[in-house]
Design a protein that fits this description.
heterodimer, A: alpha/beta, 6-stranded mixed β-sheet, 4-stranded antiparallel β-sheet, B: mainly alpha, 2 domains
Chain lengths: 257, 270
């Protein structure tokens, strides 16, 4: 039905060991991610969403199963996968420009070509005049944009957003979600967002994957199609189907307090 | 970007600025007044024989002692020896201590193994090691530097290491997703983000190095401010003791300020 998947998650299991015992975080989780789609992962607290993201980022290997990126087995961190942390995690002692080059420095890829790509990103997203400032001189929303450009600078094919907006206040969060979505669409990137916020997931994603409670596996996948004029997350929140999706995902999560 | 040039300053704000500057002046004036009062009362009390200047000395005698030490040409010799010992002890303590902290960070196994030893070394009053140091290193400048080093190094190791361990794990995680090696993690995040902790360890160290040097000079030396203090005490020349203590406070204050300047420079991004 579609192109080849970009990422194939095949039957992964993840077990963590600690002196208190062992915990199974993920069980038989399989998922295909296609190029250009925006996929969002929701699930009950502690269901292993972040574990899945960490495995995709190459931080640790699954206990069983495998992950293929372009049909090749993922063996560790790679420049094909870009990770965007929960809060911006800009390095306060580096200027904005040096922050953006961080990933390239680590991968020994600071060349004229990569630098001009980073500069182009800065220009397109209105940050070039802040290049030589330090992060503490920027607003929360701008810092988040810098964090996104830092991830984009290594030119990854898929972006992993780890509750990327949860550190922001509500208003900023809505605006930043809009911006980030637009940038990702414009740069033609594939993205995976882990979030607690169902509305955020519906407003941004093409598909929403609901995980079961621990050990996490795929419970249900929703394909989101909203009738809204310009497809920005903010406008999408006004779509008539929005509340139906919200209600059925909410029921699927089966939250008890 | 600079738009502050055109900002209109209201009368209230001017009044506020004036209040702030008045307050600052008041603090400074009081500080100076206290110092002058101490000097005047001390001098008067000694001149009028309320106290015995033989055991309390007095400002005019301190001044005379200072001038005569200067004329004999031995003042700068003593000052420079003590300052040299302190600077060397402090620098060695900082460098070796930081290096040891890096090793502890590098190997979790090593840090677990050494933990109880460091705790004991930290709680041990290092002055107790004085005689051992003298026997091993000999009576002289080296023993004094070793004393300063011993006193400052354990605090440096523990302070810097705890700085390294407190670095935000999410920043380390971010670097790892870029594929960073352990050395890159150290260079790009652990060390730079620990600079504030390292600098505050330095501030404590300056004081400890002075303690080490003066104690060392008490024990072994034939020169230096600590020697002058001990010698003055033994021959009951309290003028000499007071003069040396005052010079010592001035030298320690200058060195502390030097570290503050380093701190300001290294934290310019704040």
């Amino acid at each position: 039905m579609r192109a080849e998947p970009l990422v194939e998650v095949q039957n992964i299991n993840m077990t963590f060991h600690s002196p208190e015992g062992e915990v199974s975080a993920l069980k038989n989780l399989s998922l295909d991610i296609y190029p250009g789609e925006f996929i969002s992962i929701v699930g009950p607290s502690g269901c292993g969403k972040s574990t899945l993201l960490n495995i995709l980022a190459g931080l640790f290997a699954p206990t069983a199963g495998q992950i293929l990126v372009h049909k090749k087995k993922l063996l560790g961190p790679t420049s094909k996968v870009g990770y965007m942390p929960q809060s911006d995690q800009l390095f306060e002692w580096r200027t904005i420009w040096k922050n953006i080059l961080l990933g390239l420095e680590v991968q020994n890829k600071v060349t004229e070509e990569t630098k001009s790509y980073a500069q182009k990103l800065l220009n397109s997203y209105g940050l070039s005049e802040f290049k030589n400032l330090y992060p503490s001189q920027l607003s929360g929303g701008m810092r988040q944009r810098v964090a996104l450009i830092r991830t984009l600078a290594i030119n990854p094919e898929i972006l992993l957003l780890d509750e990327a907006f949860s550190a922001l206040d509500y208003q900023t969060r809505l605006v930043v979600a809009d911006e980030v979505k637009q940038i990702i669409v414009k740069e033609k990137k594939t993205a995976m967002l882990v979030t607690h916020d169902i509305s955020e997931a519906i407003s941004m994603a093409d598909r929403i994957v609901v995980l079961t409670k621990r050990p996490g596996s795929v419970k249900k996948i929703y394909t989101i199609s909203l009738t809204c004029s310009d497809k920005t997350p903010m406008k999408c929140r006004e779509a008539p189907e929005f509340s139906d999706y919200f209600y059925s995902i909410w029921k699927e999560l089966d939250v008890h307090v | 970007m600079s738009e502050q040039a055109t900002v209109q300053v209201s009368a209230e704000h001017l009044a506020y600025q004036k209040r702030v500057s008045m307050y600052r002046k008041k603090v400074l004036a009081t500080q100076v007044a206290i110092l002058l009062a101490i000097i005047v009362v001390w001098e008067l009390a000694a001149t009028l024989r309320w106290i015995d200047p033989f055991i309390t000395s007095q400002p005019s005698r301190v001044l005379r002692t200072l001038v005569s030490l200067h004329n004999e040409g031995i003042l700068y010799k003593h000052i420079s020896i003590t300052v040299m010992e302190t600077v060397v002890g402090f620098t060695l303590g900082t460098i070796i201590g930081t290096f040891a902290a890096v090793l502890l960070w590098w190997s979790e196994f090593l840090s677990k193994v050494l933990e109880p030893y460091l705790v004991i070394l930290n709680s041990l009053p290092k002055i107790a090691l004085g005689p051992i140091i003298i026997v091993w290193v000999g009576q002289g400048v080296m023993a004094i530097i070793a004393m300063a080093l011993f006193i400052s190094i354990v605090v440096t190791i523990l302070g810097v290491y705890s700085g390294f361990s407190q670095v935000d794990t999410d920043k380390i995680k971010l670097l790892k997703t870029f594929g960073a090696t352990k050395w890159q993690v150290f260079k790009k995040v652990i060390f730079p983000s620990s600079i504030p902790t390292i600098v505050s360890a330095l501030k404590i160290n300056v004081g400890l190095s002075w303690v080490g040097v003066i104690v060392g000079e008490f024990l072994v030396s034939r020169a230096g401010l600590g020697y002058l203090i001990v010698y003055g005490g033994q021959v009951f020349r309290l003028d000499l003791v007071m003069t040396s203590v005052i010079i010592l406070s001035a030298a320690a204050a200058v060195m502390y300020q030097a570290v503050v300047v380093v701190e300001k420079y290294s934290l310019k991004w704040r």
